[in-house]
Amino acid sequence: MSAINNVMKNNFRNLELDEFLSETLRDAGYGRVEVQKTPIGTRITLSVTRPGLVIGRKGTGIKDLTSKLEQKFGLSNPQISVVELEAPELNPKIMCNRIAQLIERGTAFRRAAIWTNNTIMNAGALGVEITVAGKLRSERAHFEKHAAGLVPKSGDVANKVVRYGVTHVLTKMGLMGIQLKIALKNEMPREFEMIDSETSEKTIENQKMETGVQVGAEENKTTEG
Protein backbone atom coordinates (compact mmCIF):
# COMPACT_ATOMS: atom_id res chain seq x y z
CA MET A 1 0.00 0.00 0.00
CA SER A 2 1.35 3.41 -0.98
CA ALA A 3 1.93 6.13 1.58
CA ILE A 4 -0.95 8.24 0.21
CA ASN A 5 -3.44 5.37 0.44
CA ASN A 6 -2.23 4.58 3.93
CA VAL A 7 -2.77 8.18 5.06
CA MET A 8 -6.24 8.31 3.49
CA LYS A 9 -7.17 5.03 5.14
CA ASN A 10 -6.04 6.25 8.56
CA ASN A 11 -7.91 9.55 8.17
CA PHE A 12 -11.10 7.76 7.15
CA ARG A 13 -10.77 5.41 10.12
CA ASN A 14 -10.25 8.36 12.47
CA LEU A 15 -13.42 10.00 11.14
CA GLU A 16 -15.40 6.82 11.72
CA LEU A 17 -13.86 6.50 15.19
CA ASP A 18 -14.78 10.10 16.04
CA GLU A 19 -18.37 9.54 14.87
CA PHE A 20 -18.65 6.31 16.86
CA LEU A 21 -17.32 7.91 20.03
CA SER A 22 -19.57 10.94 19.61
CA GLU A 23 -22.61 8.69 19.68
CA THR A 24 -21.34 6.24 22.31
CA LEU A 25 -19.99 8.83 24.79
CA ARG A 26 -22.65 11.46 24.23
CA ASP A 27 -23.82 11.43 27.87
CA ALA A 28 -20.22 11.71 29.09
CA GLY A 29 -19.72 15.01 27.22
CA TYR A 30 -17.43 13.77 24.46
CA GLY A 31 -15.14 16.50 23.12
CA ARG A 32 -12.43 15.02 20.92
CA VAL A 33 -10.12 12.04 20.41
CA GLU A 34 -6.41 11.81 19.67
CA VAL A 35 -5.00 8.65 18.09
CA GLN A 36 -1.29 7.93 18.19
CA LYS A 37 0.51 4.77 17.07
CA THR A 38 3.25 3.47 19.36
CA PRO A 39 5.56 0.44 19.15
CA ILE A 40 3.42 -1.40 21.73
CA GLY A 41 0.00 -0.54 20.31
CA THR A 42 -2.38 2.37 19.70
CA ARG A 43 -2.70 5.15 22.25
CA ILE A 44 -6.15 6.78 22.35
CA THR A 45 -6.74 9.93 24.39
CA LEU A 46 -10.37 10.87 25.05
CA SER A 47 -11.33 14.37 26.19
CA VAL A 48 -14.70 14.41 27.97
CA THR A 49 -16.48 16.47 30.61
CA ARG A 50 -17.45 13.50 32.82
CA PRO A 51 -14.60 10.95 32.91
CA GLY A 52 -16.35 8.80 35.51
CA LEU A 53 -19.02 7.72 33.02
CA VAL A 54 -16.36 6.55 30.58
CA ILE A 55 -14.25 4.68 33.12
CA GLY A 56 -17.21 3.03 34.85
CA ARG A 57 -17.28 1.17 38.14
CA LYS A 58 -13.93 -0.56 38.73
CA GLY A 59 -12.92 0.19 35.14
CA THR A 60 -15.65 -1.91 33.51
CA GLY A 61 -16.70 0.89 31.17
CA ILE A 62 -13.26 1.51 29.75
CA LYS A 63 -12.62 -2.24 29.36
CA ASP A 64 -15.82 -2.64 27.37
CA LEU A 65 -14.95 0.36 25.21
CA THR A 66 -11.46 -1.03 24.57
CA SER A 67 -12.83 -4.36 23.33
CA LYS A 68 -15.35 -2.59 21.07
CA LEU A 69 -12.68 -0.41 19.47
CA GLU A 70 -10.40 -3.41 18.97
CA GLN A 71 -13.12 -5.44 17.25
CA LYS A 72 -14.87 -2.69 15.27
CA PHE A 73 -11.85 -0.73 14.01
CA GLY A 74 -9.12 -3.36 14.15
CA LEU A 75 -6.88 -1.34 16.45
CA SER A 76 -3.85 -3.22 17.74
CA ASN A 77 -3.65 -3.28 21.54
CA PRO A 78 -5.61 -0.03 22.15
CA GLN A 79 -4.63 1.84 25.31
CA ILE A 80 -7.28 4.37 26.32
CA SER A 81 -6.66 7.31 28.60
CA VAL A 82 -9.41 9.72 29.67
CA VAL A 83 -8.80 13.45 30.19
CA GLU A 84 -11.27 15.96 31.62
CA LEU A 85 -11.86 19.08 29.53
CA GLU A 86 -11.04 22.31 31.36
CA ALA A 87 -13.38 24.58 29.36
CA PRO A 88 -16.21 22.52 27.83
CA GLU A 89 -18.15 25.71 27.00
CA LEU A 90 -15.52 26.48 24.34
CA ASN A 91 -15.78 23.07 22.66
CA PRO A 92 -18.20 23.19 19.68
CA LYS A 93 -19.00 19.46 19.72
CA ILE A 94 -20.03 19.49 23.35
CA MET A 95 -22.15 22.61 22.97
CA CYS A 96 -23.80 21.19 19.83
CA ASN A 97 -24.77 18.09 21.76
CA ARG A 98 -26.15 20.24 24.58
CA ILE A 99 -28.38 22.10 22.14
CA ALA A 100 -29.59 18.78 20.72
CA GLN A 101 -30.32 17.42 24.19
CA LEU A 102 -32.28 20.54 25.12
CA ILE A 103 -34.37 20.27 21.95
CA GLU A 104 -35.02 16.57 22.57
CA ARG A 105 -36.31 17.43 26.06
CA GLY A 106 -38.84 19.85 24.61
CA THR A 107 -37.02 23.17 24.83
CA ALA A 108 -37.66 25.54 21.94
CA PHE A 109 -34.74 25.63 19.53
CA ARG A 110 -34.55 29.42 19.69
CA ARG A 111 -34.31 29.45 23.48
CA ALA A 112 -31.69 26.68 23.40
CA ALA A 113 -29.63 28.59 20.83
CA ILE A 114 -29.77 31.87 22.78
CA TRP A 115 -28.84 30.13 26.06
CA THR A 116 -25.88 28.43 24.37
CA ASN A 117 -24.87 31.71 22.78
CA ASN A 118 -24.74 33.48 26.14
CA THR A 119 -22.97 30.57 27.85
CA ILE A 120 -20.17 30.49 25.28
CA MET A 121 -19.65 34.26 25.35
CA ASN A 122 -19.58 34.27 29.17
CA ALA A 123 -16.84 31.61 29.02
CA GLY A 124 -14.55 34.06 27.24
CA ALA A 125 -15.03 33.33 23.55
CA LEU A 126 -14.21 35.91 20.91
CA GLY A 127 -17.43 35.15 19.04
CA VAL A 128 -20.03 32.48 18.36
CA GLU A 129 -22.39 31.68 15.51
CA ILE A 130 -25.19 29.08 15.74
CA THR A 131 -27.18 27.96 12.69
CA VAL A 132 -30.27 25.78 13.11
CA ALA A 133 -31.80 24.40 9.89
CA GLY A 134 -34.67 22.07 9.07
CA LYS A 135 -38.42 21.96 9.68
CA LEU A 136 -38.35 24.32 12.62
CA ARG A 137 -41.96 25.49 12.94
CA SER A 138 -43.74 24.39 9.76
CA GLU A 139 -43.63 21.81 6.99
CA ARG A 140 -41.36 24.06 4.97
CA ALA A 141 -37.68 23.87 5.91
CA HIS A 142 -35.74 27.02 6.65
CA PHE A 143 -32.93 28.13 8.94
CA GLU A 144 -32.18 30.63 11.69
CA LYS A 145 -28.83 32.08 12.66
CA HIS A 146 -27.86 33.44 16.08
CA ALA A 147 -24.51 35.19 16.47
CA ALA A 148 -22.60 37.23 19.01
CA GLY A 149 -19.13 38.75 19.14
CA LEU A 150 -16.66 38.46 16.26
CA VAL A 151 -16.32 35.32 14.10
CA PRO A 152 -13.74 35.59 11.26
CA LYS A 153 -15.10 34.22 7.99
CA SER A 154 -12.02 33.80 5.81
CA GLY A 155 -8.26 34.03 5.73
CA ASP A 156 -5.54 32.59 7.89
CA VAL A 157 -7.09 34.04 11.05
CA ALA A 158 -10.30 32.06 10.48
CA ASN A 159 -8.34 28.81 10.03
CA LYS A 160 -6.48 29.33 13.29
CA VAL A 161 -9.21 30.80 15.47
CA VAL A 162 -12.57 29.27 14.48
CA ARG A 163 -13.65 25.79 15.63
CA TYR A 164 -16.63 23.97 14.10
CA GLY A 165 -19.21 21.52 15.40
CA VAL A 166 -22.14 19.83 13.63
CA THR A 167 -24.87 17.56 14.94
CA HIS A 168 -28.42 16.46 14.10
CA VAL A 169 -31.52 15.90 16.16
CA LEU A 170 -34.73 14.14 15.17
CA THR A 171 -37.92 15.93 16.24
CA LYS A 172 -41.61 15.40 15.56
CA MET A 173 -41.42 17.85 12.67
CA GLY A 174 -38.43 16.10 11.09
CA LEU A 175 -34.65 16.15 11.09
CA MET A 176 -32.98 19.30 12.39
CA GLY A 177 -29.35 20.23 11.75
CA ILE A 178 -27.23 22.32 14.12
CA GLN A 179 -23.97 24.00 13.15
CA LEU A 180 -21.86 25.83 15.71
CA LYS A 181 -18.82 28.06 15.19
CA ILE A 182 -16.73 29.29 18.10
CA ALA A 183 -13.93 31.84 17.71
CA LEU A 184 -11.32 31.36 20.45
CA LYS A 185 -9.82 34.52 21.87
CA ASN A 186 -6.59 32.89 23.07
CA GLU A 187 -5.84 31.61 19.53
CA MET A 188 -5.72 35.11 18.04
CA PRO A 189 -2.28 36.06 16.69
CA ARG A 190 -0.45 38.62 18.77
CA GLU A 191 -0.57 42.21 17.62
CA PHE A 192 2.66 44.11 16.92
CA GLU A 193 3.65 47.71 16.39
CA MET A 194 6.44 49.32 14.40
CA ILE A 195 9.11 51.09 16.49
CA ASP A 196 11.61 53.56 15.05
CA SER A 197 15.30 52.76 15.41
CA GLU A 198 15.87 55.90 17.52
CA THR A 199 13.01 54.97 19.86
CA SER A 200 14.28 51.39 20.21
CA GLU A 201 17.83 52.60 21.00
CA LYS A 202 16.52 54.95 23.67
CA THR A 203 14.44 52.15 25.16
CA ILE A 204 17.50 49.87 25.32
CA GLU A 205 19.61 52.59 26.93
CA ASN A 206 16.92 53.27 29.54
CA GLN A 207 16.71 49.57 30.35
CA LYS A 208 20.50 49.40 30.77
CA MET A 209 20.47 52.45 33.05
CA GLU A 210 17.70 50.98 35.18
CA THR A 211 19.57 47.68 35.42
CA GLY A 212 22.77 49.49 36.46
CA VAL A 213 20.95 51.46 39.16
CA GLN A 214 19.42 48.28 40.56
CA VAL A 215 22.80 46.50 40.60
CA GLY A 216 24.46 49.48 42.30
CA ALA A 217 21.77 49.59 44.96
CA GLU A 218 22.21 45.90 45.69
CA GLU A 219 26.01 46.33 46.01
CA ASN A 220 25.57 49.21 48.45
CA LYS A 221 23.27 47.12 50.59
CA THR A 222 25.85 44.29 50.60
CA THR A 223 28.64 46.69 51.64
CA GLU A 224 26.60 48.22 54.43
CA GLY A 225 25.72 44.76 55.72
What is the number of strand segments?
Answer: 7
Hey, roughly how much beta strand do the residues contain?
25-35%
Number of helices: 7
What global shape is seen?
A: globular
Brief write-up:
This protein is an alpha+beta fold. The chain has helices at 3-24, 51-55, 60-73, 92-104, 109-122, 155-161, 197-224, and strands at 30-38, 41-48, 78-84, 127-134, 142-149, 162-170, 175-183. The strands form two sheets. The protein has a four-stranded antiparallel β-sheet. The chain has a three-stranded mixed β-sheet with strand order 1-2-3.
Mind explaining what this structure looks like?
Helices cover 46% and strands 26% of the residues. The longest helix is centred in the C-terminal third of the chain and has 28 residues, at 197-224. With 225 residues, the chain is of the alpha+beta class. Strand 4 (127-134) and strand 5 (142-149) form a beta hairpin. Strands 5-4-7-6 form a four-stranded antiparallel sheet. The chain contains seven helices and seven strands. It has helices at residues 3-24, 51-55, 60-73, 92-104, 109-122, 155-161, 197-224; strands spanning 30-38, 41-48, 78-84, 127-134, 142-149, 162-170, 175-183.
